[in-house]
């Protein structure tokens, strides 16, 4: 697990409700437009008020190099350091894009984390770690067959996360 950083990790809010700890909202992101749409939607709907009710935790899952390389046979071990480096760079780009979106919406009380592993498990573990009341994930909009083959992170989280799970669907672009 790598905690990328926290812009402001203070949980206490001055003024009204002083001394009351904010509950956490975990938003799972990856490199997809769907996850960034979900983050943007969440920022607009939950964090555009002067005193947000939640502490925002943005979590990205980085696959293990061995899960990407698989059983590639002889020489696969030689490739793993390169794959690890590429996965790390990709994860950092995802977090940087999330930081830009949060800054654009003037949200600074954010914890950013990258965890290695399968996104389904990573997100459910982040919910437990932060005692989150809500998990937000984007929907890739897979059909039944693709969802059955690839698995659905949102479906898994809806059944296994110990909190409310909000699945944000990106509206389809209509061609004119």
Architecture overview:
The chain has 176 residues and is of the alpha/beta class. It has a single domain (2-10, 20-169), classed as Rossmann fold. 43% of the residues lie in helices and 23% in strands. The chain contains six helices and six strands, in the order E-E-H-E-H-H-E-H-E-H-H-E. The protein has a six-stranded mixed β-sheet, sandwiched between helices. The longest helix has 29 residues, at 76-104. The chain is globular. The chain starts with a strand and ends in a 7-residue tail after the last strand. Residues 25-169 form the UspA domain. This is UspA domain-containing protein.
**Annotated CATH homologous superfamily:** HUPs
The CATH class is identified as: Alpha Beta
Please count the helical segments.
6
Poorly predicted segments = 6-17
Q: Based on DSSP secondary structure assignment, what is the total number of beta strands?
A: 6
Strand content: 15-25%
Global structural class:
alpha/beta
Query: How do the strands line up in the largest sheet?
Result: 1-4-3-2-5-6
Under the CATH scheme, the architecture is 3-Layer(aba) Sandwich
- Please indicate the count of domains: 1
- Helicity range: 40-55%
Order of helices and strands: EEHEHHEHEHHE
What is the CA-based Rg, rounded? 17 Å
How many strands, what sense, and barrel or not for the largest sheet?
6 strands, mixed
Shape: globular
- Cα-to-Cα separation, first versus last residue: 45 Å
Mean pLDDT over the full residue set = 82
CATH topology: Rossmann fold
């Amino acid at each position: 697990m790598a905690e990328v950083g926290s812009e402001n990790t203070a949980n206490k809010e001055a003024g009204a409700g002083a001394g009351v700890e904010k509950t956490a909202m975990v938003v799972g992101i990856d490199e997809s437009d769907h996850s960034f749409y979900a983050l943007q939607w969440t920022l607009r709907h939950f964090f555009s008020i002067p005193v947000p009710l939640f502490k925002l935790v943005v979590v990205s899952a980085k696959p293990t190099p061995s899960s990407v390389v698989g059983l590639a046979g002889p020489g696969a071990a030689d490739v793993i350091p390169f794959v690890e480096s590429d996965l790390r760079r990709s994860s950092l780009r995802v977090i940087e894009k999330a930081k830009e979106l949060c800054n654009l919406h003037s949200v600074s009380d954010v914890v950013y984390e990258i965890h290695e592993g399968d996104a389904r498990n990573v997100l459910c573990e982040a919910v437990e770690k932060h005692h989150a009341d809500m998990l937000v994930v984007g929907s890739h909009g897979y059909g039944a067959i693709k969802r059955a083959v690839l698995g659905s992170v949102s479906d898994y989280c809806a059944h296994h996360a110990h909190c409310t799970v909000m699945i944000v669907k990106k509206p389809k672009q209509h061609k004119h």
